[in-house]
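Milestone 3.1: sequence recovery, worked example.
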């Protein structure tokens, strides 16, 4: 989950909700810049954070009892394996993109544990096999994954409240077209991206968030109960082309 500290406590966004927002971002891209198997790509983006580990014990809490942001949690091999298992039911393309994403996230862990290395080795082997079966060049697969990663990064910027103040720009990442994209929040509250990658000249993005006033919890179960009973708010961003 994504955890933001706010004046009244915690703002929490489920990672699956962030992934859905990432897919909505990708849905609006200009048609001529979309990857192959576009709908399957959107499905991979929307579901790339599925397979979350069950909340048992204190896995979702910091040592101080606060809700743990996803960046504070250790790598869970079981979760990564479950993500891949679920992807396989929707076909080779989603499996390929999901596997590339896991390699992107966890390749830096190589050499720490034998079972982690085995998992990473399996991803490399499977990626080659899926590219062969789909008759894809490596560059074409990378183009699609770069699209997925860009949408994921932009969604995280919005969900984690990373937009700079005073109309300063923030780099999103290099897009699948090798262009550098930057985001800026305007004085009127709207958000713009340069260069503009979307088909419409204005669009609205939304994600569900939960607000908690309780600051500390004794167990994952207590946190989960508070989450389900917390008010659900819709965070909204209005994007507009300014070029």
């Amino acid at each position: 989950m994504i955890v933001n500290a706010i004046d009244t406590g915690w703002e929490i966004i489920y990672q699956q909700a962030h992934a859905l927002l990432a897919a909505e971002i990708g849905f609006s891209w200009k048609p001529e810049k979309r990857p192959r198997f576009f709908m399957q790509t959107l499905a991979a983006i929307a579901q790339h954070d599925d397979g979350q580990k069950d909340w048992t014990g204190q896995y979702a809490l910091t040592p101080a009892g606060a809700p743990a942001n996803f960046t504070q949690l250790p790598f869970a091999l079981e979760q990564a394996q479950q993500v891949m298992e679920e992807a396989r039911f929707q076909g080779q393309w989603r499996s390929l993109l999901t596997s590339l994403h896991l390699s992107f996230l966890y390749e830096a862990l190589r050499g720490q544990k034998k079972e982690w290395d085995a998992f990473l080795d399996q991803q490399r082997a499977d990626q080659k096999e899926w590219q062969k079966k789909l008759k894809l060049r490596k560059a074409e697969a990378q183009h699609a994954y770069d699209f997925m990663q860009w949408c994921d990064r932009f969604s995280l910027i919005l969900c984690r409240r990373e937009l700079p103040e005073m109309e300063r720009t923030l780099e999103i990442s290099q897009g699948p077209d090798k262009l550098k994209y930057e985001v800026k929040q305007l004085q009127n509250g709207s958000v713009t991206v340069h260069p503009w990658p979307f088909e419409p000249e204005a669009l609205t993005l939304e994600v569900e968030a939960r607000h908690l006033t309780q600051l500390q919890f004794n167990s994952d179960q207590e946190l989960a109960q508070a989450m389900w009973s917390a008010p659900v708010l819709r965070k909204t961003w209005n994007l507009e082309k300014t070029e």
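Residues 2-163+209-237 form one domain. The helical segments are 15-27, 38-46, 77-88, 92-106, 114-133, 138-159, 220-229.
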